[in-house]
TrEMBL record:
Residues 241-361 form the L,D-TPase catalytic domain. Pfam families: Big_10, YkuD. Keywords: Acyltransferase, Cell shape, Cell wall biogenesis/degradation, Peptidoglycan synthesis, Transferase. It comes from Micromonospora kangleipakensis. GO terms for molecular function: acyltransferase activity; peptidoglycan L,D-transpeptidase activity. This is L,D-transpeptidase-like protein.
Length: 423
């Protein structure tokens, strides 16, 4: 039985000041003084260009200005209704807060004001395309509203089929994250294009509010596909918790806000089915679930488990294993999971959150990048290399923010097919 429970990701807009879409207003003109040359009026170029047809419903209103700056933008549909939009952080365009509708006509009016107060308004009318017949790429956002997440949570979007390299920049430009207080980061693609993750250089600060928007509905992706959906969600970051699992000692150390709460004996994967070493994140939690490994190379069993917490798509969990309590702290007997006592597993469920950091060290194999939410399994520099767009200069971790046990937060399918294996 498949134990997947997908967290639905909803997209967020980038950290910008919301634009008030309203009527265009002209500033008061400055009287020309004798002997002074009259200032040039602003020149405005708006996209989509006037009378453009077959515009994707993911369209944005772009504007370039000479001799001034944009002071008002108004977007309306063919019934005169105003369409809310927000500016990008760099001011290059205005993004409607919802996808446009197919086969509709829209009018954009952009007003710019020069240094002398002279204004120019440029108007453009365009028509969106009919509903596309191209196949849609399925997108999944692993971020839902009204949740409390751990400080290591990477916002993750998965794709089926994968996004080709040449299309990743266009997709990434339509993925927005806003944090309060501000804590900028970047997106990074897993090599196969099935998953992209967002994080800041440092862990999220406890109490941070995060809003996400995956605005991909109707977006042309490559030559032969479009995005399937537009999702939005807002949640917050809770307390800082991290788990350090050491194969040498067969112990798990549980930290909260940098302080050791408890040490727990563990039994990890035996030599034929070793546990992965690496830096992971708790992905989902189950009070009770079923591991069905029939069909797996080293599986063939079905077992019900209590208090299970997923760490990888491949089926590695922390879970209650009363059958191995005599081995915990002494010898590895599992099929790759981290076995703990029933009492410890129940206690952990009350302490941890989805998004908490889990570090495993000293086992026979290393964690594969992309097998779970692996944004913290590489250095910041390596993570940033995975961005399809330029990463802002100066975006670096603080010296004390390197992930380590007990660190206080400072700051196959759409994803690899989640396996039900465990044990």
């Amino acid at each position: 039985m498949d134990v997947r429970r997908r967290l639905r990701l909803f997209a967020v807009t980038i950290a910008v000041t919301p634009l008030v879409i309203g009527g265009c207003t002209a500033g008061q003109r400055e009287a020309a003084k004798p002997g002074h040359k009259k200032a040039a009026a602003p020149a405005v170029t708006v996209t989509p260009a006037d009378r453009t047809k077959d515009v994707p419903i993911s369209a944005e209103v772009g504007a370039k200005v000479a001799h001034g700056k944009i002071t008002a933008v108004r977007l309306t549909d063919d019934k005169g209704a105003q369409v809310p939009a927000e500016p990008r952080e760099d001011g290059s365009s205005w993004v409607p807060t919802k996808p446009l509708q197919n086969s509709r006509t829209y009018t954009a009016e952009v007003t710019a004001t020069g240094g002398s107060g002279r204004t120019t308004t440029q108007k453009t009318t365009f028509t969106t395309m009919a509903k596309s017949t191209k196949p849609a790429i399925t997108t999944e956002l692993y971020f839902t509203s009204k949740q409390t997440y751990g400080t290591a949570l990477p916002v993750t979007v998965a794709f089926d089929p994968p996004i080709p390299k040449e299309a990743r920049a266009d997709v990434q430009r339509r993925l927005f994250v806003k944090t309060d207080p501000p804590q900028p980061g970047t997106w990074s693609w897993v090599a196969d294009g099935k998953q992209v993750e967002y994080r800041a250089p440092d862990f999220w600060q406890p109490g941070t509010k995060i809003s996400v928007r995956s605005a991909l509905q109707g977006l042309p992706i490559g030559k032969n596909a479009i995005g399937d959906a537009d999702h939005s969600a807002t949640s917050k970051i809770g307390r800082q918790v991290s788990l350090d699992i050491d194969n040498a000692t067969k112990q798990m150390s549980v930290y909260q806000d940098g302080k050791l709460l408890r040490k727990i004996p563990v039994s990890l994967g035996k030599s034929s089915t070793p546990t992965s070493s690496g830096t992971m994140v708790i992905m989902e939690k189950f009070d009770r679930t079923t591991f069905d490994t029939r069909g797996d190379p080293n599986g063939g069993y079905v077992v019900d488990v209590d208090d299970a917490q997923r760490l990888t798509w491949g089926g590695e969990f922390i879970h209650s294993a009363p059958w191995s309590e005599g081995d915990q702290g002494n010898i590895n007997v599992s099929h790759g999971c981290t076995n703990v006592s029933a009492d410890a597993a129940h206690w952990l469920m009350g302490v941890t959150q989805v998004g908490d950091l889990v570090t495993v060290k000293g086992t026979e194999v290393k964690l594969d990048q992309g097998n779970g939410w692996t944004a913290w399994n590489v250095s910041w520099d390596e993570f940033a290399k995975g961005s399809a767009l330029p990463v802002p200069a100066g975006l670096k971790p603080t010296p004390s923010s390197t992930p380590h046990p007990g660190a206080v937060a400072g700051g196959s399918a759409p994803a690899p097919t989640p396996s039900a294996s465990g044990g």
